[in-house]
Amino acid sequence: MSLHTSDLVLVPGRQLKPLDTISGFQVRPGFFRFFGATVIPGGVNFTIQSHGATSCELLLFHRDAEEPFAALKFPDNYKIGFVYSMIVFGLDIEEFEYAYRLDGPYDEKKGLRFDKTKILLDPYARAVTGQSQWGCTNNPQHSYRARVVQNNFDWGLERNEPIPMEDLVIYELHVRGFTKSPSSGVSCPGTFRGLEEKIPYLKKLGINAVELMPVFEFDEMRDARLIDDNELLDYWGYNPVCFFAPNTSYSSSIEYNREGMELKRLIKALHDNEIDVILDVVFNHTAEGNEMGPSFCFKGFDNNIYYMLTPDGKYYNFSGCGNTLNCNHPVVQELILDCLRYWVTDYRVDGFRFDLASILGRSDNGTPLNQPPLLRSLAFDPILGNVKLIAEAWDAGGLYQVGSFPSWKRWAEWNGRYRDDMRCFLKGDAKMAGIAAQRMTGSPDLYDPVYRGGNASVNFLTCHDGFTLYDLYSYNQKHNEANGWDNTDGYDDNNSWNCGVEGDTDDQDILSLRFRMIKNACAVLMCSRGTPMFLSGDEFGDTRFGNNNPYCQDNLISWLDWNLLGKNADLFEFFRYMIAFRMEHPAIRKDLEPSYIGFPSMSIHNLVPWENEHMENSYAVCVLFAGYDEDEGREDLVYIAVNAHWYAADLTLPDLPEGYVWKIAVNTGDPKQQTFTEDQMPVSEKTIVLGERSVIVFVGEKSE
Predict the structure, then answer these.
(1) Which of 10, 237, 540, 573 is least crowded, fewest Cβ atoms below 10 Å from its Cβ?
(2) pLDDT tens per residue across span 79-116
(3) Which of 103, 217, 392, 542 is labelled catalytic?
(4) Of all helices (H) and strands (E), which one includes residue 625?
(5) Is the pTM of this model over 0.85?
(6) Residue 661 forms beta bridges with which residues?
(7) Which one of the listed residues 57, 196, 355, 395 is annotated catalytic?
(8) By the 8 A CB rule, do 601 and 592 touch?
(9) Tell me: domain 5-104, CATH 3.40.1190.20, correct?
């Protein structure tokens, strides 16, 4: 196991002395278990590994210099096994950047790509140079260097109590796009600091977890191109350059040798406001691409170890991005474990969402493994013991594991079936009611509680990939022309419905229907068993104008339009209400003590209570959540009724014991008022009209 800065208590208190001189620098063999560059008393320890290299040089650069001012070749006795390690004395970390050159055999058919002319980035670099200014071509040669980073952030009395998975409401956002628009009103738009300024908004909304799209260092200019005078970039950031380094262009100021401080301040501020931080991590591929791509890191260290290669040395492409990391090779497995431990210990991250996670379960030839070593190691790692592990349980190679992702009761999944099935049901597709009932009750057909635990399903209707919730009910087809691929990119099967008109309209009836559909979706999501997640901006009707794949759009298409918050204040308040409602009713979130009334924890109904045998012909679903809340000392009874049909229907409510009544908390079909506070809730009749395309949520309470 490799060690990090915090492990340096192992270094003897006395300062070590040099034993050799190389290129004018006093040196000695280093700490072979400390991968990366680490400050020690009197010097800096540099350690890397390569199984195939025949020699290694450490390169030292002055800031912004094209050529190194020193090249220190590792002597043979500075190598143990496949690890090179050297302490260089007298270095001021603020006065240099570093990289490596490795020599070795070059044979593409064998997957060997050593090239002593290539400048290589340390795989364990804590900061990458030349990336601080967003949108600038700082690195035309793909030659990356690293900085040594001081780890002296004061976390103070940082909380360490994780929020249970079932209690989370996850809010997915893009750090830049969240505040980049001038309408955001922050002082440092598009940065970690800008996001920190929005914490009061997040608290008001009521979410308690943010899922940040990639914040690892990436090069947004990698595939920059000009389409109709608009510069398109790698905006989303799903092409990692370095796994250990934060994206410095998301910082509001340059942080030489203190990279990550602004991100740490953000994380601490979120924690101080009881909001978890989940990172979207991309361990399925890198920005080095295929055989036509650049060689700036892993290709030059051990190409045939870090990447999945075909028998003739080409790159398997299960990621759809040119290459595929060989995640279950012991070397790569160790790197990923070290990386995640680093983000947990040095950044106090609460969880990870793994992009295209099915790749993490493939062998070196691409076949799926029954017991993937990496996934198992992550599940049982002691440092990661309390963090959330969330898998995007599919990949671009066709492996789809929703409901079957290896879990050891530790892994949750983005439930893609929830998204697809609930979209179909809510827009009124036939024969979906029975499937929708399964999704609303935690998808027990996919996640057996005995084998997967009760928190396997992350329910979502929208995420960064696909339509926003507003666009889901405004467009029948994608409109990705601005991406420059003749509208061929992005999904075709969106399961969306434009409510009668494609795109913008002034028709008030259609607009009213669209917002009712959005409220229906929100109410159902917040009243489903499993962890809810939604895309930032959905709560105030943000639009991408029908673009369902704006990965390259660093402009108004992707930036949140905060003007809509005022325009659609009613929608925002509805989201606030439903999030708070979910928090107030634990019976929705988890199994409570058995109900004294005798109701099961969850039950599925049709328009007539306790009948669900003929749901294949129904457009209505009702779910009853029940249990005794010991914390509150009361029965918790929630009944949600959903009518996806274009005609109203008569709904009969389950009988309650004497002294209890059903009250209406939410009725999206009520044109005057859709939500009711505790003291406003009207008592419902036993039979009530469930309006067309509407949702009613009832609460069972003791009568006054």
Answers:
(1) 10
(2) 999 999 999 999 999 999 999 999 999 999 999 999 99
(3) 392
(4) strand 620-629
(5) yes
(6) 701
(7) 355
(8) yes
(9) no
